[in-house]
Write a structure and sequence with these properties.
alpha/beta, 20% strand, seven-stranded mixed beta sheet, 162 residues
Length: 162
């Protein structure tokens, strides 16, 4: 029992330290996710010179499903943007979400799980889903949107002004 407690404390400290070392306020977090096809995608693989939208979501969340459906009806507003959708749930959940929403047909959308590491979730202090962070083409944070205040018109207008 004592070893488990020590292990948990050390694990927490490692995650906390990792997030502080690699987190640069106002910049894209140095994330790593597993896509539905099992491939690893890292922040360093993001396309250079494009605005970025990070959506933190849960495949089981009704608000996240509605946001995704509404987002896809306006996909032309976001065709020149890299979109990364991140969850903490299993690759299987991600695969089902991708299939249900036919997300594989959009080359600018990357979707995956960070699993139990919760680096991105902790980086943004996310407590509700969905969450959106908008970055300009130089990877500087422009705006954060929280679940009840996500407005796709506002998001699209911010992109037009970048």
């Amino acid at each position: 029992m004592k070893n488990k407690i020590i292990y948990l404390i050390l694990t927490f400290l490692m995650v906390f330290t990792y997030s502080k070392i690699y987190a640069q306020p106002g910049k894209v977090p140095s994330f790593k996710i597993v896509e539905s096809n099992g491939k690893i995608f890292k922040a360093e693989n993001l396309p250079i010179g494009k605005p970025l939208i990070i959506i933190y979501f849960s495949p089981e969340c009704d608000d996240c499903q509605r946001l995704t459906e509404n987002f896809l009806t306006r996909i032309n507003d976001f065709k020149n943007v890299a979109v990364v959708m991140i969850t903490y749930l299993s690759v299987e959940s991600v695969s089902q979400f991708v299939a249900r929403n036919n997300l594989n047909k959009y080359s600018n959308i990357i979707i995956g799980t960070e699993g139990k590491y919760l680096f991105v979730k902790n980086y943004y202090n996310i407590e509700q889903f969905p969450f959106i962070a908008l970055y300009n083409s130089k990877c500087y944070l422009i705006k954060k949107y929280y679940s009840k205040e996500i407005n796709l018109n506002d998001l699209s207008d911010h992109l037009k002004n970048l």
